[in-house]
Design a protein that fits this description.
Lambda Exonuclease, Chain A; Nucleotidyltransferase, domain 5; 3 domains; 7-stranded mixed sheet; 5-stranded mixed sheet
C-alpha cells in the first residue's frame, strides 16, 4: 500500500475519497483559484516558519522520492540539526516532515499550518508522521503543530517568534498510535478492490474538515441531489438534514409540514412549495422611508495576508483595497466614484482619505450586509485618528439593503430561502446574473481578492487589464444594489 500523509488524512475524512483519488481521479473536482490561493499561502507560511529553526537545510523536491529519502539520510548522518521537508518511507507510507529538528540523538516533529488553531485533522497528520519515524527506529522527543497567532499585531518589523504559536501535541499523538494499524488495515481493505468503489453514503464528512473534491461526483452524479434541496434549507443544521435524507427526503417539495423547523425555515419551505412570491409592502415602505437622498451605495473589496506585510496589521485581517460608490439622486440620476489601490504598497491611508472625500458625513450610505462594510470602516477609523470622526459618522448613517430580505419581507421561490445577494440579485434582476458571467477575469469576490494579490507579479500590460477587470466587477456590485433598491421601490409604488 502506497500512502502519503495527505492521502492518509483524506482517507480519515472518507475512505471513498481516498479510493477515488487512487483509482478514479477523473471524477474529482480540480482545485479552483481559491483552493490554489490557500495552497500558495500554506507554502509561504511554511517558508517563514522555517526561520524559527534557522541554519537548516531543505530537501529538494523530486518526483523520485527515493532521492529525497537518500538526501534526508545523508544529512542526518552529516549531523544537520534542522531539516526542512525531511522525507521518510515505512512500508509504503511516505511522509515529508515540514521541520525536523535533531538534538542529542532525538528528533522533534513540527507540522506547519496556515491556520489560527490546532484542528483535529492536524493531529492525524502528525500522528502518521510519528508512526513512520517511530517504526524506523527514531527516538522522538516531541511532536508539534506550528500555526499562526491571530492575536499578533505587526510592528515596524515582522517578529517571527510572535507571529507563530508552537503547540506540543505529543501526548495526543502518542494516544492515537495504537489505532493507526487498524486504520491502515481498513484503507488496505478498500484499496485491494480496484474495481468496486467503497459503499459510503454522503453525510457531514463531505464538508468536514474540508469540502471534499469528490462531493460533486457523490452528490450530483451518483445521487442526483438538486442544486436546491433539503441540504440548502437556511440554517437547518446537518443533524436535521441527515434525518430527512435518511428518510429518503431530498427535494424541498417532500418535506413534511410537521417537520421540526424554525418559523423562518418553515416559511422558506412553504414559499418554495407554493411557488408564491411574498411581499410585505408596509415593512418595505417603512424601510424605504428611512432612506434620504442622495443615497450612497457602497461596496468594498478586501484581501487577507497570513503574513502581515504592513505595520498595524493582524494575520488574516481584511485589508480594503477597492471600493465602488454609486450615488443615487432623488430624480434617478446616478454618479459613480471608485478607488483601486496600487499593488505592493500599503494604501489604507489613501483609501480612507478618498472615502472621506467621496462620502459626506451626513448622507445615507447603503450597503448589502453592512456589518462587513462597517467593520472595515471602523478599523480604518481606529488606524487613522484624523479621519476617525468622519468615518464613524459614515458608519452611523449606514443602512442595510439586506434587511428586507433577511426579515423575509420580500421572498421569492428562486431565492431558495436565502437572503444572500447571490440568490436575491438573480431573483429580482435575472439579467444581472448574465452580466457577472460576461465580465472578463473577475466575476466574484474571491476572484477579486486573488486578482489583487497577484497584481505585483504581472507585467504592465497584464496589470492594466486586470485592474480594469477589478474596476468593472466592483462597479457592477454597487449598480446591482441600485437595481435591487429600484425593484423594492417599484413594488411599493405599484400597490
Amino acid at each position: 500500500m502506497n500512502l502519503s500523509k495527505s492521502l492518509y488524512t483524506k482517507g480519515i475524512q472518507c475512505p471513498k475519497a481516498l479510493w477515488l483519488k487512487k483509482y478514479k481521479p477523473s471524477v474529482l473536482t480540480p482545485p479552483d483559484e481559491s483552493a490554489q490561493a490557500i495552497f500558495d499561502t500554506g507554502n509561504i507560511v511554511g517558508d517563514f516558519a522555517c526561520q524559527l529553526f534557522p541554519n537548516g537545510k531543505e530537501v529538494p523536491y523530486s518526483k523520485n522520492y527515493d532521492e529525497m529519502i537518500a538526501t534526508t539520510k545523508q544529512w542526518l548522518d552529516d549531523g544537520v540539526e534542522n531539516i526542512y521537508e525531511a522525507t521518510f518511507n515505512f512500508f509504503g507510507i511516505l511522509v515529508m516532515v515540514d521541520i525536523l529538528t535533531i538534538s542529542n540523538s532525538e528528533v522533534s516533529i513540527y507540522e506547519v499550518k496556515s491556520s489560527t488553531e490546532v484542528k483535529d485533522i492536524y493531529l492525524h497528520d502528525v500522528s502518521i508522521q510519528y508512526y513512520v519515524l517511530k517504526n524506523l527506529g527514531f527516538k522522538i522527543k516531541s511532536a508539534n503543530v506550528i500555526h499562526i497567532n491571530n492575536d499578533y499585531i505587526r510592528g515596524d518589523d515582522l517578529d517571527i517568534n510572535q507571529l507563530f504559536k508552537i503547540v506540543d501535541v505529543t501526548n495526543e499523538v502518542i494516544s492515537m498510535q495504537s489505532n493507526i494499524p487498524n486504520i491502515l488495515k481498513e484503507f488496505e481493505t478498500y484499496l485491494e478492490d480496484r474495481e468496486n468503489e467503497p459503499n459510503i453514503d454522503i453525510g457531514k464528512h463531505c464538508n468536514n474538515p474540508y469540502v471534499c473534491d469528490a462531493k460533486e461526483y457523490c452528490w450530483k452524479v451518483q445521487r442526483q441531489i438538486p442544486d436546491y434541496s433539503i441540504f440548502n434549507i437556511f440554517n437547518l443544521g446537518s443533524k436535521k438534514q441527515i434525518e430527512l435524507y435518511s428518510r429518503g427526503i431530498i427535494n424541498i417539495d417532500d418535506v413534511p409540514h410537521d417537520f421540526d423547523m424554525t418559523s423562518i425555515q418553515a416559511q422558506a419551505v412553504e414559499n418554495y412549495k407554493s411557488k408564491i412570491t411574498y411581499i410585505d409592502i408596509e415593512n418595505i415602505k417603512s424601510f424605504l422611508q428611512n432612506l434620504t437622498y442622495p443615497i450612497y451605495h457602497l461596496d468594498f473589496e478586501t484581501y487577507q495576508q497570513a503574513i502581515p506585510q504592513y505595520k498595524g496589521l493582524k494575520p488574516f485581517e481584511q485589508i480594503p483595497f477597492q471600493y465602488s460608490l454609486h450615488i443615487e439622486y432623488e430624480d434617478g440620476t446616478l454618479e459613480h466614484k471608485e478607488y483601486l489601490a496600487q499593488d505592493s504598497v500599503d494604501s489604507r491611508y489613501e483609501l480612507a482619505l478618498r472615502l472621506c472625500k467621496d462620502i459626506p458625513n451626513d448622507v445615507t450610505v447603503l450597503a448589502y450586509n453592512m456589518s462587513f462594510e462597517k467593520s472595515v470602516i471602523k478599523r480604518l477609523a481606529t488606524l487613522f485618528e484624523e479621519f476617525s470622526e468622519h468615518l464613524l459618522a459614515i458608519n452611523d448613517n449606514m443602512q442595510d439593503l439586506m434587511i428586507p430580505f433577511q426579515k423575509k419581507w420580500y421572498v421569492t421561490p428562486s431565492m431558495n430561502g436565502s437572503y444572500s445577494i447571490k440568490y436575491v440579485l438573480p431573483a429580482l434582476e435575472p439579467e444581472f446574473e448574465k452580466a457577472y458571467k460576461e465580465l472578463d477575469g473577475v466575476q466574484n469576490g474571491s476572484q477579486a481578492m486573488n486578482a489583487f494579490a497577484r497584481l505585483g507579479s504581472l507585467d504592465e500590460k497584464e496589470k492594466l487589464k486586470l485592474r480594469n477587470s477589478l474596476l468593472e466587477y466592483c462597479k457592477l456590485d454597487t449598480l446591482a444594489m441600485v437595481k435591487i433598491l429600484e425593484k423594492l421601490k417599484k413594488e411599493v409604488n405599484n400597490i
